[in-house]
Every structure is written in structure tokens, then in C-alpha cells.
Amino acid sequence: MRKKWVSAATVIAGAVSMAHGQATSVKSSAVEAFGKGVQIYTCKAAGTDYAWTLKAPEATLSDVKGKLIGKHFAGPTWQANDGSSVMGEPLNVSPSPNAGAIPWIVLHAKSHEGDGVMATVDYVVRTRTEGGVAPSTGCNAGRIDAEVRVPYSAIYLFFRH
């Protein structure tokens, strides 16, 4: 199963490279991380109705051996244990093939902080998502600003230059 996802990462990296005119060079993966945590939603007025709106993710990032290597939070931002971080902006969003899971997404690095492992990340890919979808009920006039924390997990791939 892991080989299948490494191959998928190579294909994604190739597509990202080709999109930027680098058809002969494939970017190497800087980090592959398992994200586990919650998507935090807030009940907000949406016109004449009410809806759960994403406030922020809150997750830990672990390597393939289960070692904690960082965290994911609002921005969206990913921060490594060395203090370096990357903030992303969405380029492409695709529905997850898993019902009830948040979308898969490709993000371009918008900004960086620090000199560590995240300092040279150009793209972040969120894939293999499970859970995390906002509730379809429970947000109403009596619950404005209420929060819900919905468990989720995902694989994050970080591509660098």
C-alpha cells in the first residue's frame, strides 16, 4: 500500500513540475506526514440560513514510524518541530473518494518562517482524508458562534525546491 502512495506522490510531483515548465525534473518529497486531529467549525449566519463554517484545523503531524514531527493549524499552516513553517494557499480542490471526508487539496506555499525543513517547501498536498466534514445539522440562531470539533485524518505530502 505504501508503494502505491509513494508512486502517487511521484506522479503528483511530476504534474506540479510540468505545470511550472520543468517537465524533465521531478521534485522530491521533503516530508510525508500523517495528520490526525480535528477540523473546527463555527456556527455562522449565512444569508437567511445558518451554516457551520471552517474556523481552523488542529492536528499533529507524524512520520511513517509514528514519531511526532510537527503540527497543522490555521492559515492553513504546517509547522515542523524545528520551528520552520509553511503557509499555503489552495490551487486545486477535489472531492475525496471517501464519503464523509474533507476534500483532497493541492496548495502552493504562500509564505515561510524559519530555516528548517519547511523553509523550502513549494507545495503541500492533502490526500487520503477521512472524516472532518462539517455537520449538516445543529447550526441555528440559538447556536451562533458555537463550535464543533470534527475528527479527521489525512496524509500530507510536502514538495520542495
Describe this structure in words.
11% of the residues lie in helices and 54% in strands. It is built from one helix and eight strands. It has one helix at residues 2-19, and strands at 29-46, 49-62, 68-73, 77-80, 85-94, 104-113, 121-131, 147-160. Strands 1-2-3-4-5-6-7-8 form an eight-stranded antiparallel β-barrel. The two termini are 27 Å apart.
Please describe the structure with a list of short key phrases separated by commas or semicolons.
8 strands, disordered N terminus, 161 residues, mainly beta
Radius of gyration: 17 Å
Strand segment tally: 8
Gap between N and C termini: 27 Å
Low-confidence stretches are 1-27
Helix content: 10-25%
Please, what is the oligomeric state? single chain
Number of helices: 1
How do the strands and helices of this protein lay out in sequence?
Layout: H1 2-19, E1 29-46, E2 49-62, E3 68-73, E4 77-80, E5 85-94, E6 104-113, E7 121-131, E8 147-160
Antiparallel strand pairs: 1-2, 1-8, 2-3, 3-4, 4-5, 5-6, 6-7, 7-8
